[in-house]
Design goal:
Elements lengths: L3 H4 L3 H12 L17 E5 L7 E5 H9 L5 H13 L9 E3 L11
Parallel strand pairs: 2-3
Antiparallel strand pairs: 1-2
Helix pairs in contact: 3-4
Length: 106
């Protein structure tokens, strides 16, 4: 996989700055996915829980496909090796975006 610095030169610095400004007390605990920085959305918080890094599931799959995986291979790899991994209370969270179709009315 290409180094993130090659494709997005300023992204790691921006991400680090954001986390330092907003989560300095938890900086050593937040778990980040190496190589998936462009999929980082923010930090998820809930009452009584620890803050967690949050990623776009779609973008994670896109990043895997950049490494010559088919869509099906990327979805399977993401599902079993990334999304279903539990590494403690700071395990990252993943958003599966919901979109309305063109016919939806409020």
């Amino acid at each position: 996989m290409k180094k993130i610095e090659d494709k997005y030169p300023s992204y790691p610095n921006r991400l680090t700055s954001y986390l330092e400004e907003n989560y300095d007390d938890e900086l050593d605990n937040l778990l980040l996915l190496d190589g998936f920085e462009p999929a980082f959305i923010g930090v998820v918080e809930s009452f009584g829980g620890k803050p967690k890094a949050c990623y776009s599931a779609e973008k994670c799959i896109d990043i895997l496909m950049e490494d010559n995986m088919s869509y099906e291979e990327a979805v399977e790899y993401f599902s079993f090796n990334i999304e279903q991994s539990y590494v403690g209370e700071y395990t990252p969270a993943f958003i599966h975006r919901f979109t309305f179709d063109d016919n939806f009315k409020f």
